[in-house]
């Protein structure tokens, strides 16, 4: 078990279960150094998006690293104002140019834009069939969005990336995804550190001589969730993933599950302002 530990997706592609998210990492030097330090620490999964406006720095850091491109799993996403079939194809081309790559490992529909996400996904299917992305998926899709998508999808999404942390455990989404062989990936996996003082986290951190962040990442790892904790600081990047020398017991896992309050940090997908 290490940062190279992978999960097999429904199309046979393997994804490192723990990666680095770069949301809000500033374009230029900040994101460049964050990706370089993560790769040096052994991370092999980097998650970006056109919205983050830092794809160039991500691509440059990967290009300048000693790690071969084929050993790094790169995710990017199509933003809401780029959705629609032709628009998505054009947005993907721009992402590839910014990343300085000829393919990505995973391309996601960032949010289920009403009236558009199905034709957006059709573009992803074509990009997949053309070999420009090794896998395709979705983000922030509720079960009813997924039901609608699966009616016409010819290529099943491999992942659904959603807000997921101990106070928002997304049972309904996870159950639907499990039933349909779609892996769940967590964004804001640490709950933006808003409740590290929670008694359960404090108790388990003391028991295992670990930090609250490490307890959370370990819980997600043992739950089979793909997780992408974000940090631009090398020490924190190391700390977040120092989770392979201990294990949460069944009782510990139940305690973690008791923290669920259905409490969101970001917007609910059905209440998001899509501007349409």
UniProtKB/TrEMBL annotation:
GO terms for molecular function: oxidoreductase activity, acting on the CH-OH group of donors, NAD or NADP as acceptor. The record marks 77 as: Lowers pKa of active site Tyr. The active site is at 52 (proton donor). Residues 19-260 form the NADP-dependent oxidoreductase domain. Keywords: NADP, Oxidoreductase. The keyword NADP applies. Residues 257-276 are annotated as: Disordered. InterPro entries: AKR, Aldo/ket_reductase_CS, NAD(P)_OxRdtase_dom_sf, NADP_OxRdtase_dom. It comes from the Bacteria. Transmembrane segments: none annotated. The keyword Iron does not apply. Substrate binds at residue 110. Belongs to the aldo/keto reductase family. This is Oxidoreductase. It comes from Gracilibacillus boraciitolerans JCM 21714. The lineage of its organism: Bacteria, Bacillati, Bacillota, Bacilli, Bacillales.
């Amino acid at each position: 078990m290490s940062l190279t530990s992978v999960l097999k997706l429904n199309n046979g592609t393997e994804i490192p279960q723990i990666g680095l998210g770069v949301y809000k990492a500033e374009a230029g030097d900040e994101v460049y150094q964050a990706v370089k330090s993560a790769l040096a620490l052994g991370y092999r999964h980097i998650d970006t998006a056109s919205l983050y406006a830092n794809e160039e720095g991500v691509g440059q850091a990967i290009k300048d690293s000693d790690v071969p491109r084929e050993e790094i799993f790169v995710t990017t996403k199509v933003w809401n104002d780029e959705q629609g079939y032709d628009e998505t194809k054009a947005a993907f081309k721009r992402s590839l140019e910014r990343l300085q790559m000829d393919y990505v490992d995973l391309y996601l529909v960032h949010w289920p834009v009403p009236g558009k996400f199905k034709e957006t996904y059709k573009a992803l299917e074509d990009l997949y069939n053309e070999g420009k992305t090794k896998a395709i998926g979705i983000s922030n899709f509720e079960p009813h969005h997924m039901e609608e998508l699966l009616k016409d999808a010819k290529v099943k999404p491999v992942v659904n990336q959603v807000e997921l942390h101990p106070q928002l455990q997304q049972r309904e989404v996870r159950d639907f995804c499990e039933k349909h062989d779609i892996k769940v990936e967590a964004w804001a996996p640490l709950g933006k550190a808003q409740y590290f003082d929670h008694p359960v986290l404090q108790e388990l951190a003391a028991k295992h001589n670990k930090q609250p962040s490490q307890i959370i990442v370990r819980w997600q790892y043992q739950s089979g969730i793909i997780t992408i904790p974000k940090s631009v600081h090398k020490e924190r990047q190391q700390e977040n993933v120092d989770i392979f020398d201990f294990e949460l017991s069944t009782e510990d896992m139940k305690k973690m599950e008791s923290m669920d309050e259905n409490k969101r940090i970001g917007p609910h997908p059905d209440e998001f302002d899509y501007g349409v």
